[in-house]
Write a structure and sequence with these properties.
Number of strands: 13
Strand content: over 45%
Shape: rod-shaped
Distance between the termini: 22 Å
Order of helices and strands: EEEEEEEEEEEEE
């Protein structure tokens, strides 16, 4: 968690404040140092939280008698693995005319999804039809047959992280 700690009133001389996760031994490092009675000083810190299922999330220790303000500025959630949700989106079958080249565009993904891959396929058994190039926008097919039509499709793999 992101935390601002401010010492308002000190009655003794120099001292320190330490913030750390609850249920863990207090570290030797200080989160905030103060150097004189009556001094007002603040510091920001990132303090790991006690996890999981703790009675409290963090502890604060003062080496002397002080009044402090602890202001929680933000909370950083622990990362966790999330499986992708993916779907395949195929273009309509596109005829490739005899003796020609045709670009079959990769279909767009639905809102919230990103294209993470693509696939190109064509009619099997047509010896003159083949794929000559794939790029970020589609699949370029060539039909060298003088008589046989050739059909091709482009398929986008579209993925998203669930809940985002």
């Amino acid at each position: 968690m992101a935390l601002n700690i401010t010492v308002l009133t000190t009655t003794a001389g120099a001292g320190f404040i330490t913030a750390w996760p609850f249920n863990v031994a207090r570290p030797l490092a200080a989160t905030l140092n103060y150097y004189a009675a009556g001094q007002q000083v603040g510091n920001g810190a990132l303090v790991p939280l006690c996890q999981p299922n703790c009675a409290a999330e963090f502890s604060i220790f003062s080496s002397g008698a002080v009044e402090i303000i602890a202001d929680i500025v933000g909370y950083l959630a622990s990362p966790f693995a999330t499986a992708l949700q993916c779907t395949q989106v195929a273009s309509a079958s596109t005829p490739i005319a005899v003796s020609s080249d045709t670009l079959v565009a990769l279909p767009s993904c639905a809102a919230g999804y990103t294209r993470t891959g693509g696939n190109c396929s064509g009619t099997s058994g047509i010896p003159g039809g083949y794929l000559i190039e794939t790029n970020a926008t589609g699949c370029l097919f060539r039909n060298l047959s003088p008589v046989a039509p050739y059909n091709a499709t482009a398929t986008s793999t579209c993925c998203r992280i669930p809940g985002r």
